[in-house]
Amino acid sequence: MKNIMEQTIVIKPNAKTITVLKKMVVEKEKYRKIVLAKIEKKEK
Amino acid sequence: MYKYNALEGNYPLFSFSTKHGLNYYVAFRKMDFENPFFDNLYSFDFWEMNSQKFLKDNAIEATIIQIVIDFFKLNPSCLLHYICDSMDEKHNFRSKLFKKWYDKSNKEDFSKLNIEFKIDEIESYNLEFIFNETFYTFESVKENVLSQLEDFSNYK
User: In chain A, what residues touch B117 (CB-CB under 8 Å)?
Assistant: First the structure.
């Protein structure tokens, strides 16, 4: 039987986890730049 | 809702233009971890090409929600995640939109796990997951996500 739910957990991260989270955000931004660079190149 | 286009790329990528001349991209970036539990993990993101401010336009939200719905139709077993930080000015809009999609979805199938990493009163990170309970149980996602973050934190 499925147990559908929504839950929010609040965590106080340690320094290493903060570094991991920051890296994830940086990777997200990096991917946006890659996509935009490819689109701009294609448009030229 | 605006008509959207699928673009060529390494990962699923979609775009649409608004009546105000804004160009949006919606990306589903496939994540690769050694942990097989995350074999079908996609990182969801969307942005305006020139980082222009969001104009009040309900069709933007409707289009992005439709793209997510269509993505899940094609990839029902995907584990969709989204990360945002409080320093991003559009953080709340993105998080609310992700929640709106979830609220509009068929809740007989989908669960949502939100993890808020609260650094202090100002800075926080939100890591959110949406998945179909046919393929994942809530507890297994929670357990694997927390364990994976722990592993990442232990990397030198």
Answer: 11-13, 17-18, 21
